[in-house]
Design goal:
The protein is mainly β. The chain has strands at about 1-5, 10, 15-25, 30-40, 45-50, 60, 70, 80-85, 90-100, 115, 120-125. The protein is globular. It starts with a strand and ends with a strand. The relative contact order is 0.31. The mean pLDDT is about 95.
Amino acid sequence: VQLQASGGGLVQPGGSLRLSCAAYGQTFVSETVGWFRQAPGKEREFVATMFRGNSGRTYYTDSVKGRFAISRGSGKNTVYLQMNSLKTEDTAVYYCASGRRLILSNIQNPAGYDYWGQGTQVTVSS
């Protein structure tokens, strides 16, 4: 599975962006898909994940709850991260990732994901 993340950019505090993660070679139906971010000098941080299958349960890190939403596109090979009420501390490179072996206890661990996109820069600044 090849993943490509896009949609990043420069936005003012309080603004919105929608990131896209496209899968090539396979759909996301059988994959749990997550978003991570990495700010300069910091470790890669879990942001959100959506479990595979019909349930599509979602989980978010506390700092983005109520502001970010992960969803699947109708075509089943795209996952979105809608980011609202952006803050300066959301500035980072955002990565999408997918895997089939993820369970609730390891969704926040990057090592649990098998495939990664190349990252897209999100900068929140006035």
